[in-house]
Design brief:
A two-stranded antiparallel ribbon has the order 1-2. The longest helix is centred in the last third of the chain and has 35 residues. It has 15 helices and 2 strands. Helix 4 packs across helix 15 and helix 11 packs antiparallel against helix 12.
Length: 319
């Protein structure tokens, strides 16, 4: 009886993969029934808009909302985008915005986390104050900084700028050469607390015994940081920078509210340019092609993010 049962079990295991997969689905049919509503909502809310955007990127759409009169043109929208000078200018702005905001926010947040990792009086209060820019509404922050940059009555424009240039205070967000750096300053002000929190959490995982052993061996503060602290923070640093990069690449509120992409497209990034093309000029096909390119870029960043997380899990499992 045992031999017969063993042979039946062996035949069942040697059956084709699809039959085994279908059997597993049937055995867990109740579990799938529970998650089916959530899957249906995801397909409606996420999958269909992605599919329709990709489809619309291959069509020429007439002005207005009469999308049923669209004309199939293949890859012409992508060719139009890639041969446009505005596209390359907006792409350059996007790279400066993303890399500048990500790198400086991370460095500033990392330095702040190292400073707050030490015990001193008022550390908790200082942490609460520094986290305010991150929790404040991005819309409110945009309007506050817009007023601050005003050349007549703003604290940065008329105040600081008026002292440096008393004859003619600068228009930080109305000048082609200064508008993008000015927006990056606002974005860094909002984002560095996030990097600070992430790195403070990472600093809690550095073994104190290793730091004490390195100190006993004669290592100075820099050597302890570079050879002990930083290697333990490498993974959380990568994850933090990828999260910041994805958020910055898809950031919309600050550049749109403060400048609307102006002056002369000097502060347009991909997401604001897509919004203007779609809802300002109603060029739905071109905007959809832009959206597909943005989606592929974000998926690439997401791939590296998932790889970083998977690497952390494998290391934790092997430890």
């Amino acid at each position: 009886m045992t031999i017969v049962t063993g042979k039946a079990e062996a035949r069942r295991r040697l059956q084709p993969g699809w039959s085994g997969t279908l059997r597993k689905i049937w055995e867990h049919r109740a579990d799938y029934a529970y998650v089916l509503p959530a899957i249906a909502v995801m397909l409606i809310v996420i999958a269909y808009p992605i599919y329709y955007t990709v489809e619309l990127s291959f069509f020429k759409t007439p002005p207005g909302l009469q999308l049923r009169d669209k004309t199939f043109i293949g890859f012409d929208n992508y060719t139009t985008i890639l041969t446009s000078q505005v596209f390359w200018k907006v792409t350059w702005n996007t790279l400066i915005w993303t890399l500048g905001s990500t790198f400086i926010s991370f460095v500033l947040g990392f330095a702040t986390a190292l400073a707050l990792h030490r015990d001193f009086i008022g550390r908790g209060v200082l942490r609460a104050i520094l986290i305010i820019p991150w929790v404040i509404s991005a819309v409110a922050a945009s309007y506050i900084w817009t007023g601050s940059y005003h050349s007549d009555f703003g604290t940065s424009g008329a105040g600081l700028g008026g002292r440096v240039w008393p004859d003619q205070p600068p228009n930080f967000i109305d000048n082609v050469s200064t508008v993008l750096p000015s927006l990056i300053v606002v974005n860094i002000w909002r984002e560095f607390p996030f990097a600070m929190i992430m790195m403070m959490a990472g600093l809690q995982t550095v073994p104190d015994q290793l730091l004490r052993a390195a100190k006993v061996d004669g290592a100075n503060a820099w050597q302890r940081f570079w050879h002990v602290t930083f290697p333990h923070l490498r993974n959380v640093s990568v994850v933090t920078m990828l999260l910041l990069a994805v958020a910055n690449f898809n950031s919309f509120i600050i550049p749109w509210i403060m400048t609307g992409g102006g002056p002369s497209n000097a502060s347009h990034i991909w997401i604001t340019h897509i919004y203007e093309l779609a809802f300002g000029r109603q060029r739905w096909g071109v905007a959809s092609a832009y959206s597909v390119l943005l989606f592929l870029t974000l998926m690439t960043l997401g791939y590296f993010y998932v790889r970083a997380l998977s690497g952390n899990e494998r290391k934790e499992g092997s430890a």
